[in-house]
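#structure-requests
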Amino acid sequence: MDRRNLLKSAVGVGDYTALLGDARAAGTSRVPNLKIAAVKAAPISKSQKRLVRVYSDQGLMGTGETDDTTGAEDIVNKDIGPRIVGRDPLDIEGIYFDLWANVDVRGLGGPYLNAVSGLEMALWDLAGKAFGLPIYRLMSGRVRDKIAILFDVKDPKHAAEVVKSTGARAVKVPIGPGQADFGATLDIAGKPAGLRLTARQIDAIGAYAAAMREAIGPGVEMALDCHSLFDTESAIQVAKVVEPSRPMWLGEPTISDNPDVMRHIREATRVSIACGERVYTRYGFRPFLEKQAVHIIEPDMSKTGGLLETRKIAQMAETYVVDVAPHGVGTPLAQMAFAQVCSTIPNFMILEWAAYFNDRYNQMMKRPEAKDGYVEVSDAPGIGAELNHDAIQEALLPGYTLPEHL
């Protein structure tokens, strides 16, 4: 099988197995009989990011990433990594099924699924290198060659600077304590949800949203992120008070554990409601879609089960006419992997482009240049990231190592 025919064969997620079988049957050198030789994970110091590497017995290596604070690297290094040594790294669906879908851990989110998600991303990176193809070719082929991005900003002044310097067409800003005048007596330390707001605080949020709209102008979209802070009635009041500023969406106005409550908020406002960065796997998203609880979902591919799992979530959402705007807090490696998947999703809306101004990350991994609110999807094999292995090693928590080669 020559490279041209190999490219033509990669037409859908369900065809990955057929593509692999055809390539091996034809004896292509691009798809050797690989075995996993080792799996290593390491945390980046002063960060929630964990890098995962899968090494093959023939020198190919794939790198993935997850976002965790409670030990995902130990799960990779001590549990799931050793369990898959000796397996074919191109059998991604089988590995994922065995690691997550067995009776002991099925449906479990948190550190375990974070670890599996980072490992799965590394497997896709390795598979792309084995085939000599970008990940989007292995999934379904792309429906767009550039990705609309949403820049994280801190406040109205920062938003105006980002719009002017980058040509951003959309920004995302948190609203909640610390982002507006909520009053000196408010103390939410250790209180992740259920925050009841006063009338003064709700008015402050409305004024803050109006200031943000004034700073960026009418031609730039604005998403507001509540980080699951508010109780139901406060969330409804917040949604109503920001309506005049016409936000792109109101993200996670309350906890994502109850789709009925989220639907109640949605029905009480004209503002689009989004959630999903704290929802795991297609099974977690199912009730939000079935109950039509949200307008937009925000899966995080480094936590929700991986790249292919997110592609499946997007396919489910497509049948409910729900848009997909992935949560994108990560290094350039993760964001480029997310972009690969987003290019294949028909109902894709926009990708969060967080940590854009983090020079430390940019030294570790070259980020594609953003232009007029878009980034182009790499055609390089795998994720397509250019990694500075020395800078990565220097950034890891002391005691950890991720060599370029075994």
